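2024-03-11 09:14:02 INFO queue: dequeued item dITP/XTP pyrophosphatase, len=326
2024-03-11 09:14:02 INFO validating residues
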Amino acid sequence: MNSKIYEYKDEQNWFIGQYSETDSSVYYQEEAKKTYGSLVRDLRSLLDEGSSLMLTVVRIASSMALVQFFLEMINDQQQHTYEASSHKGAVLVTEEDRLVLICLPKGGLTVSEFFGEENNHSAIPGDSILIATRNEGKTKEFSQMFAKLGLKVENLNHYPELPEVEETGLTFEENARLKAETISKLTGKMVLADDSGLQVDILGGLPGVWSARFSGPDATDQKNNAKLLHELAMVFDLKDRSAHFHTTLVVAAPNKESLVVEADWPGYIGMEAKGSNGFGYDPLFIVGESGKTAAELSAQEKNDISHRGQAVKKLMEVFPAWQKAH
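2024-03-11 09:14:37 INFO prediction written
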């Protein structure tokens, strides 16, 4: 056992932890103790015999964030491989194929709520969200983001029988709603759809909602990037090549009003493609005043500042309340 200090901090949560040779102790505000005290007591049951830790909760808004932080310390110190997922308001802790802990919300859950109408006990349950895309790059980004909420992520490649939803809307929100609400009705699942695009100022906002098919019906990322460079061939000053990525996220579920969030990511269109990460227009999109293209950023760097990353952060702030609402 070492004396390593662990810390997790974002806008809404801040935790500090350390293994200790003395008795376990937890410090937090009285309101946080009322809400999360039982959760911490449950998590302590995962400590190896004779182990203890000191935990300081400076601020907290998410039980899942606290669970993820707690498990990170235990996995590091005790060589476990615990993972957390959410299910119907409960937090499930698993290790490989074993369910080792269920942390229930205050007031508990009915059996039918927890297991669902099919009451299928044959597999460990877990809330999932279906991303309305077949793009594995986009799915990977969303998977990393939703993992913080303990949500499993699927995409349309898991449902080859589903029809393609025509994006006939004239705005990003119209297209995102079409995809999310149509697929949710067909599957009965919670579905997230995004309509994202690049808007170049000197082109009047093009390619906009046509970003994915800018170069025609057989469009590819390479063809789209080539067409964009051609359209800007006579624009030599970088300041005149200003642009921004926009994204609108819509989450739909049966018998619920859809949830909508939006975000923008400003930058410029470079003179040539650079970088091998990302997808779409990332190799051409110069991020703000950084001089780097989006394709030169790591996945984590991009998730922290991109239009999609910003939109998901906004989504995370309102998603738990929306998910619980009837």
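2024-03-11 09:14:37 INFO annotate: The chain has two domains: 5-115, 128-324.
2024-03-11 09:14:38 INFO item closed
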